[in-house]
Specification:
Blueprint: H1 2-6, H2 9-30, E1 35-38, E2 49-52, E3 56-60, E4 72-76, H3 86-117, H4 123-156, E5 175-178, H5 181-200, H6 208-213
Antiparallel strand pairs: 1-2, 1-5, 2-3, 3-4
Length: about 210
């Protein structure tokens, strides 16, 4: 059992990193600050700054254009909004997939580690579950990497969004910068990919006991 446990230190680290990466993926998905728009007209957008997320757009207004939010106005995107750019739609779908894949990766890793620490030296189960968990982690990391990179590209090229009048947003900002959600997503990508690599490099210890039980 000692050799079995000592062979899985990297996989235990993979579980820790994967958990943090999965949480950061969730945080990035729920954070509205994907793009920070700077606007010249402060009549409605009083602070001159608006936050464009993948689910909604928000800004501070002292005109109280939205009674429910007092000074903060938020308008949620609809699935029928044709003005939403492809990178935002992609982020919505891919991050949901990443959350699901990451959760499956964590489940597979936990099951494999349970067998290791309980001394159940079943080579096939342990190896395959680490392998499956690693693949799920890597797939989740790639699902986060695509929308993060795509939206970073859009910000770097100051691309506009043709908002309808009900959003009280200009079609293009004076300038825009990367919001907090993108660097959080980058960290999530790194952690998920590392988790996948650590899980995939697992090697079952070759011992007389292990061979007998397999």
């Amino acid at each position: 059992m000692n050799s079995l446990v000592s062979s899985s230190h990297l996989q235990l680290a993979a579980l820790a990193l994967g958990t943090v990466g999965w949480i950061l993926c969730t945080v990035s998905m729920g954070t509205v600050e994907w793009r920070v728009w700077h606007v010249d007209n402060t009549t409605i957008i009083s602070s001159g700054i608006a936050w464009v997320g993948i689910w909604k757009v928000c800004f501070i207004s002292y005109l109280q254009v939205s009674p429910g939010y007092k000074e903060q106005f938020c308008h949620k995107f609809s699935g029928y909004d044709s003005f939403i750019p492809a990178e935002i739609y992609a982020a919505q779908g891919l991050l949901l997939i990443a959350m699901f894949m990451g959760l499956l990766g964590l489940t597979a890793t936990i099951f494999a580690l349970r067998n290791v620490y309980m001394g159940i030296a079943h080579k096939t189960f342990i190896t395959r579950f680490f392998l499956v968990g690693g693949c799920f982690y890597i797939f989740a990391g790639l699902c986060v990497l695509i929308p993060v990179s795509w939206n970073f590209y859009s910000v770097a090229h100051n691309q506009s969004i043709d908002f309808p009048p009900s959003y009280y947003m200009p079609s293009s900002p004076a300038a825009q910068e990367v919001g907090a959600a993108i660097p959080v997503g980058i960290v999530a990508v790194i952690l998920l990919l590392l988790s996948g690599i650590f899980s995939l490099v697992y090697r079952f210890p070759v011992t007389r006991t292990a061979i007998t039980k397999c």
